[in-house]
Design goal:
single chain, about 450 residues, Conserved hypothetical protein from pyrococcus furiosus pfu- 392566-001, ParB domain, 3-stranded antiparallel beta sheet, 8 strands, elongated
Length: about 450
């Protein structure tokens, strides 16, 4: 083949390829093909098994050719691709490495070999160089790292995520990063890291993995996608703060390593950069489709959706100004966190507690003296009397409140609510709980007006 111009490309039968006995992956120069193969298998272990699985499933990578040089007897020495050649040899004859790899790996290899034998790789795509000297610059370029940019530059975590996103598998944290990069206010340092693919996306992913953090920022996780019920201006401020804190290094993985760390971090945010509950809508949309307007459209009572479709006990449109911390916490749990159909017992107990605490606070604030037994029903009756006497609510509006205090058969009576707490045989129904709230909502509004 004196007229051949090197290097040249050729598909060479696998049977004519030989391992490089001077392969740098091996600690010593080997004396035979079998010894080299067994040592590579032993040293590579699970990595070689993973490669064999990939080859058995997809075949050889057509974009990654073997680098070879001619050897005697019409064979070729593989300078680059020794792991792939070893995997092929083991898929053909796994018994060669019995005892050189773990028993579990050997069992898997035999299974792979059985499927591989149905469609074996017969030829391998190769680049043939005349000798080592001609091939060396290219071997070094492959294995010496980036070489200042001349070699293979590995993808960063952000770039790997972007690749999967462009295949339609966009992760929530990357969606948030792209959203903030487009609409948010970021420091030049953070912008540069994003543009260069050096932004620490793993830390952002860690922060957003906590449901409490996502709730405070106004986003929801559906599958791997980010959704929101808030307008764009409401969520962009808090998200921008998180992205910029991480981008500038003000926050790193050590600051948000545990869930408690992440909760403390988000709780340090001022309320003015977090979404306002008043602007929360009824429909979740992908954050990219969040509306531009600040205020959600107001709907009349007749336009409000049925309570049967509401997931939380308290409608999102209702805002109570509660200045007692414990009672305010219960209010927000019932309004924002607990899903009625998933946690009816917890909702029932908290509804009962919320009613009594709200009534107690109203009695104390108004200086109303209780006559008779100190029961929830009696306290509700005294508050109803006060509200009617001073024109807080009309008699007709107070009728369901009085019924709650007197009719033990009512689904929203104090007797029913007490049963949810104390009767182990009495289970609350999610729709009954929402109906009870809807019936008493105007009463709660006046308690906290």
């Amino acid at each position: 083949m004196s007229d051949v111009t090197y290097p040249y490309e050729e598909d060479i039968p696998v049977s004519r390829l030989r391992l490089d006995l001077k392969n740098p992956r091996l600690p010593d120069i080997q004396t035979s093909q079998i010894e080299a193969l067994q040592l590579i298998a032993h040293l590579q272990g699970e990595k070689l098994l993973a490669l064999a699985k990939h080859i058995a499933t997809y075949g050889l990578n057509p974009a990654e050719k073997f680098i070879v040089i001619p050897d005697d007897q019409d064979q070729y020495i593989v300078l680059d691709g020794n792991r792939r050649l070893t995997a092929l040899r083991l898929l053909e004859t796994p018994s060669i490495v019995e005892g050189y790899i773990s028993e579990s790996s050997f069992a898997q290899l035999k299974k792979l070999s059985a499927s591989f034998s149905k469609s074996p790789v017969v030829e391998a795509p190769c680049i043939v160089f005349v000798d080592n000297e001609q091939a060396d610059p290219w071997i070094e370029l492959i294995h010496d790292g980036e070489s200042g940019g001349a070699g293979l530059v590995k993808w960063s975590a952000q770039q790997r995520s972007r690749y999967h996103a462009r295949k339609g598998n966009k992760a929530l944290h990357l969606t948030v990063l792209d959203f903030v990069a487009q609409y948010g206010q970021l420091s030049p340092e953070t912008k540069e890291k994003i543009n260069l693919g050096k932004y620490p996306t793993s830390t952002l992913k860690r922060v957003l993995s906590t449901p409490y953090v996502r709730e405070k920022l106004g986003i929801e996780k559906k599958g791997q996608m980010a959704f929101t019920q808030y307008p764009k201006p409401d969520i962009i401020k808090g998200l921008s703060r998180v992205v910029d804190d991480i981008g500038t290094g003000r926050i790193n993985v050590n600051h948000v390593r545990t869930q408690t760390d992440r909760i403390n971090y988000i709780n340090s945010f001022d309320n003015d950069i977090l979404p306002s509950e008043e602007n929360k809508g009824d429909t979740s949309v992908p954050i990219e489709d969040a509306p531009e307007n600040h205020a959600p459209p107001q709907r009349s009572r007749t336009e409000r959706r049925s309570s049967m479709s509401r997931r939380k006990l308290i409608p999102t449109s209702l805002k109570l100004d509660i200045d007692v911390t414990r009672i305010n916490d219960i209010y927000h749990e019932l309004k924002r966190r607990l899903i009625v159909h998933e946690t009816p017992n917890a909702v029932a107990v908290l509804l009962r507690a919320f009613l009594e605490m709200s009534v107690d606070e109203y009695l104390e604030r108004k200086g109303i003296e209780i006559r008779g037994r100190d029961t929830l029903a009696n306290k509700v009756s005294h508050v109803a009397d006060y509200m009617e006497q001073y024109g807080v609510l009309a008699r007709s509006a107070l009728r369901p409140v009085r019924r709650a205090a007197s009719d033990s058969e009512s689904p929203y009576s104090t007797t029913t609510l007490n049963g949810y707490v104390h009767n182990r045989h009495f289970s609350p129904g999610p729709n009954d709980l929402k109906a009870a709230w809807d019936t008493l909502q105007i009463f709660f509004e006046k308690l906290w007006e």
